[in-house]
Specification:
The protein is α/β, with parallel strands linked by helices and about 400 residues long. It contains 13 helices and 12 strands.
Length: about 400
């Protein structure tokens, strides 16, 4: 459908169809991770990237695919420019979380792009092709990932060096705040959503956690594999996290997760932070991670609350794939160090999609505007993964 529309000169139809095809291929690859190097999984990921690249060529201003030097490797990224004027503009740097790809970032930053922000979306270790092709897994010292990306962004013409905002989605919410504690060239940070301590989200019987702490892996691992064997999603999740964190056993994985937290570094964050809370997220609901990040930063002054309609159990809340992430991003990006670019907030309401403001009946609204230099707390906005497959019911235990 997309290629036919492109051949017929129907650019808008072609772009839309190719973006849908990109997501269908990505979703199909999603549950192929029991054998990540399976030829079919690799084929689907390749088609996902190719169809996105074809769609990107049909955008009003096609993005530039770049590779950012990183240690002995490189990080793939898409640079989206608001215009070609060369005038300094605020810039969003975006990365995802546990199962993200660089292409996915476009859907989170499109609204900012349409309102005058340059956007640089990248994949880091543990994500997308960096994991699949270079074999690099997640690392807790994420500042060592973000710093070369910031270096690259500052080398680009038209990037305002005083207006860089880092946004991390899902697990990326923890990683972004961690990076902001060390990377002080950032003018702002968005935790979408806030994650305080990754190990907190593991819902296992206490005796299993005690076995892991005591090093009784021979007892703990069979129990965890047994739980996973009973539930398809849990089995996928366990294998996914073993792969992305570079662990060989469930017990080793749990010990590795404890290094991913903010308690020891949160006080070093200097930039304004927008903290978003996932009230009905599949992994983080009820854990009050946003409150812990909010309190830990000790900067609470003004609130910027973004609320989304609640979806049913196991469903994505209506609008979370469009208006809410955009509104959350713009609440932060529109106020970094008091600078705005072609948008921001109008009458206290966040601007929504790439072409229109949110209506009063939209799934997302803002009840207050964050002042520069303050930390903000958002309402229920995240859905456990943007454009990811729906999962009915909670897993028996959680490994994000």
């Amino acid at each position: 459908m997309g290629t036919a529309a492109r051949d017929e000169g129907r650019t808008v139809d072609a772009r839309s169809a190719l973006l849908r095809a990109h997501n269908y291929y990505r979703t199909a690859e999603f549950f192929q991770h029991e054998q990540p190097r399976d030829p079919e999984a690799l084929r689907l990921m390749r088609l996902s990237r190719e169809t996105f690249a074809d769609a990107a060529e049909l955008m009003d201003r096609p993005p530039e695919f770049v590779r950012i030097p990183y240690e002995d490797a490189s990080l793939p990224a898409y640079l989206y420019r608001a215009d070609d004027s060369g005038e300094p503009r605020p810039t969003i740097i975006h990365h995802g979380g546990l199962d993200s790809t660089v292409e996915e970032g476009y859907f989170f930053v499109a609204a900012a792009l349409a309102r005058g922000y340059h956007c640089l979306c990248f994949e880091g270790p543990g994500q997308g092709s960096v994991l699949r092709e270079q074999g690099l897994v997640f690392r807790p010292d994420w500042e060592n990932v973000v710093t070369p990306v910031v270096d690259h962004a500052l080398s680009l013409p038209g990037v305002d060096p005083d207006s860089l905002t880092l946004m991390g989605t899902s697990l990326g919410g923890l990683l972004a705040v961690r990076a902001a504690a060390f990377e002080h060239r950032l003018a702002g940070c968005v935790a979408h959503d806030a994650v305080w301590q990754l190990g907190d989200v593991v819902g296992l019987p206490p005796f299993v956690l005690e076995w892991v702490e005591q090093g009784c892996d021979d007892f703990a691992d069979p129990v965890m594999w047994g739980i996973a064997a009973r539930q398809t999603f849990t089995r996928w999740l366990l294998r996914q996290t073993l792969w992305t964190f570079g662990a060989d056993t469930p017990s080793q994985l749990l010990r590795r997760l404890t290094a991913f937290g903010l308690s020891e570094v949160i006080g070093q964050v200097r930039s304004p932070v927008l903290v978003l809370d996932a009230e009905e997220d599949l992994f983080f609901a009820g854990l009050e991670h946003a409150k812990k990040v909010y309190t830990g930063a000790q900067l609470a002054q003004d609130l910027a609350c973004v609320h989304g309609r609640r979806g049913g159990r196991g469903a994505l809340p209506p609008g979370c794939d469009a208006a809410v992430p955009r509104a959350a991003l713009l609440l932060a990006a529109g106020n970094t160090r008091g600078k705005t670019a072609g948008g921001g907030l109008t009458g206290g309401r966040p601007i929504g999609g790439p072409a229109a403001e949110l209506s009063p009946d939209s799934p997302a609204r803002s009840s207050a505007v964050r002042a520069p230099g303050r930390i903000s707390v958002g309402g229920p906005v995240h859905c456990g993964g943007f454009l990811r497959p729906l999962v009915s019911g909670p897993p028996d235990f959680h490994l994000p």
